[in-house]
Amino acid sequence: MVGYYEILPHARPIEIRVEEQAWQFDDQYCVQRGCDCQSAGLTFIPVMGEGSQRNADPRLRLSFRYSYNDGQADHVTAGADAPSVSEMLGELRKAQPDLKGFLARRHSVY
Q: For residues 40 and 61, what is the distance between their CA atoms, to the nearest angstrom?
Protein backbone atom coordinates (compact mmCIF):
# COMPACT_ATOMS: atom_id res chain seq x y z
CA MET A 1 0.00 0.00 0.00
CA VAL A 2 1.15 3.52 -0.79
CA GLY A 3 -0.02 6.67 0.93
CA TYR A 4 -2.04 9.22 -1.02
CA TYR A 5 0.22 11.99 0.24
CA GLU A 6 3.28 10.08 -1.01
CA ILE A 7 1.89 10.24 -4.55
CA LEU A 8 0.44 13.75 -4.22
CA PRO A 9 2.49 15.42 -1.46
CA HIS A 10 0.92 18.83 -2.01
CA ALA A 11 -2.67 17.61 -1.69
CA ARG A 12 -4.67 19.50 0.90
CA PRO A 13 -4.58 17.60 4.20
CA ILE A 14 -7.84 16.53 5.76
CA GLU A 15 -8.37 17.26 9.41
CA ILE A 16 -11.31 16.24 11.57
CA ARG A 17 -12.20 16.89 15.20
CA VAL A 18 -13.41 14.45 17.82
CA GLU A 19 -14.44 16.34 20.91
CA GLU A 20 -11.59 18.81 21.48
CA GLN A 21 -8.91 16.82 19.64
CA ALA A 22 -7.89 17.55 16.03
CA TRP A 23 -6.88 14.57 13.89
CA GLN A 24 -5.07 14.30 10.58
CA PHE A 25 -6.40 11.72 8.18
CA ASP A 26 -3.95 9.60 6.19
CA ASP A 27 -5.03 7.08 3.56
CA GLN A 28 -3.09 4.36 1.78
CA TYR A 29 -4.08 2.27 -1.23
CA CYS A 30 -3.02 -0.87 -3.07
CA VAL A 31 -0.98 -0.17 -6.20
CA GLN A 32 -0.65 -3.71 -7.58
CA ARG A 33 -1.47 -4.01 -11.26
CA GLY A 34 -4.66 -5.92 -11.90
CA CYS A 35 -5.83 -5.74 -8.30
CA ASP A 36 -9.48 -4.78 -8.04
CA CYS A 37 -9.57 -4.31 -4.26
CA GLN A 38 -11.76 -1.55 -2.92
CA SER A 39 -10.03 -1.04 0.40
CA ALA A 40 -7.99 1.71 1.93
CA GLY A 41 -5.68 1.73 4.89
CA LEU A 42 -6.91 4.60 7.07
CA THR A 43 -4.86 6.15 9.83
CA PHE A 44 -5.91 8.93 12.17
CA ILE A 45 -3.08 10.79 13.85
CA PRO A 46 -3.72 13.31 16.62
CA VAL A 47 -2.49 16.82 15.92
CA MET A 48 -0.58 18.07 18.92
CA GLY A 49 -0.21 21.84 19.21
CA GLU A 50 1.19 23.99 16.46
CA GLY A 51 3.79 21.49 15.26
CA SER A 52 3.74 18.49 13.02
CA GLN A 53 2.04 15.18 13.69
CA ARG A 54 5.50 13.76 14.49
CA ASN A 55 4.95 14.75 18.11
CA ALA A 56 1.60 13.00 18.32
CA ASP A 57 0.93 10.77 21.29
CA PRO A 58 1.07 7.14 20.04
CA ARG A 59 -1.58 6.14 22.61
CA LEU A 60 -4.10 8.07 20.52
CA ARG A 61 -3.29 6.71 17.05
CA LEU A 62 -5.88 4.64 15.22
CA SER A 63 -5.48 2.72 11.99
CA PHE A 64 -7.50 0.09 10.18
CA ARG A 65 -8.30 -1.36 6.78
CA TYR A 66 -11.56 -0.01 5.46
CA SER A 67 -13.54 -1.54 2.61
CA TYR A 68 -15.12 1.54 1.11
CA ASN A 69 -17.40 -0.57 -1.06
CA ASP A 70 -19.24 -2.21 1.85
CA GLY A 71 -18.24 0.01 4.79
CA GLN A 72 -16.51 -2.72 6.80
CA ALA A 73 -13.42 -2.09 8.93
CA ASP A 74 -10.93 -4.71 10.05
CA HIS A 75 -7.30 -5.12 11.14
CA VAL A 76 -7.76 -2.37 13.70
CA THR A 77 -4.68 -1.09 15.51
CA ALA A 78 -5.52 1.39 18.25
CA GLY A 79 -3.61 3.13 20.95
CA ALA A 80 -4.91 2.74 24.50
CA ASP A 81 -6.66 6.14 24.45
CA ALA A 82 -7.78 6.19 20.80
CA PRO A 83 -11.39 6.90 19.84
CA SER A 84 -13.41 4.09 18.30
CA VAL A 85 -13.48 3.29 14.59
CA SER A 86 -17.16 4.28 14.42
CA GLU A 87 -16.46 7.68 16.01
CA MET A 88 -13.68 8.44 13.54
CA LEU A 89 -15.65 7.24 10.52
CA GLY A 90 -18.63 9.31 11.68
CA GLU A 91 -16.53 12.46 11.81
CA LEU A 92 -14.86 11.64 8.50
CA ARG A 93 -18.31 11.24 6.91
CA LYS A 94 -19.23 14.69 8.18
CA ALA A 95 -16.17 16.08 6.38
CA GLN A 96 -16.70 13.86 3.31
CA PRO A 97 -20.42 12.92 3.07
CA ASP A 98 -19.81 10.71 0.01
CA LEU A 99 -17.05 8.75 1.74
CA LYS A 100 -17.25 5.79 -0.65
CA GLY A 101 -16.91 8.05 -3.71
CA PHE A 102 -14.23 10.16 -2.05
CA LEU A 103 -12.03 7.14 -1.26
CA ALA A 104 -12.70 5.53 -4.67
CA ARG A 105 -11.59 8.73 -6.44
CA ARG A 106 -8.44 8.95 -4.35
CA HIS A 107 -7.71 5.27 -5.05
CA SER A 108 -8.18 5.79 -8.79
CA VAL A 109 -5.28 8.29 -8.82
CA TYR A 110 -2.93 5.31 -8.66
A: 17
Signed CA dihedral, 70, 83, 76, 25: sign only: positive
Report the C-alpha gap between 59 and 62 in whole angstroms: 9
Which residues is 18 bridged to in the sheet?
21
Please state, in angstroms and rounded to a whole number, the distance separating the CA atoms of residues 65 and 37: 12
Q: How many CB atoms lie within 10 A of CB 5?
A: 16
3-state secondary structure at position 92:
helix
Which residues are CB-neighbours of 43 under 8 A, at least 6 positions away? 25, 26, 27, 28, 61, 62, 63
pTM of the predicted model as reported, rounded to 2 decimal places: 0.83
In tens, the pLDDT along 8-31 reads 777 878 889 988 888 988 999 988
Q: Are 14 and 91 in contact (CB under 8 A)?
A: no
DSSP 38-74: -EEEEEEEE--TTS-GGG--GGG-EEEEEETTTTEEE
